[in-house]
Amino acid sequence: MNPMYFDDFELGQEFVTKARTVTEADIVNFAALSWDTNPLHTDAEFAAGSHFGERIAHGMLGLVIHAGLSQQLGNLEGTLVAFLGMNWQFHHPIKIGDTIHVVQRVKELRETSQGNRGVLTFEKEVLNQRHQVVQSGTTTVLMLRKKSGDD
Questions:
Q1: Which of 4, 18, 92, 98 shows its CA 20 to 30 Å from the CA of 145?
Q2: Gene3D superfamilies under this entry (predicted)?
């Protein structure tokens, strides 16, 4: 997809990412990187006795994978100025072997006092292969606007 400017987005516009399968290696590597070695993620015997019945991915790993999948859309490449914030919820665990993708919709567009930028908020859902929403929330970014004459 070609990069998009703030002016190219419309309220309700929807984008769907490709899917990615979460692996045991992802969980092991994330535990090593983050130092989060909670046994729900790293100890198969402990996790088998939990209410999940098996090891699950770190909630933050799902969030990070969501960010990468969203970036793969390519629509913010070169036009994103800054990530401003997010509001995020965790609904269901992501398990080893789950294949997740992101559906994101334009929730809000707000012009800034600087004519060359705008604030864009996406409403997002992370879904597994059963179309179950496992995580959801909003992300807000600062975007470049088109230069006059580029319209």
A1: 18
A2: Hotdog Thioesterase
Are 134 and 128 contacting, i.e. CB atoms less than 8 angstroms apart? yes
Q: For residue range 41-96, list pLDDT tens digits in order.
A: 999 999 999 999 999 999 999 999 999 999 999 999 999 999 999 999 999 999 99
Q: Dihedral of CA 106/70/73/97: which sign?
A: negative
Residue with tokens 């590597």: 29
Domain-wise residue ranges, the chain: 6-144
* Residue partners of 130: CB distance under 8 A and separation at least 6: none
pLDDT for 151 equals 46
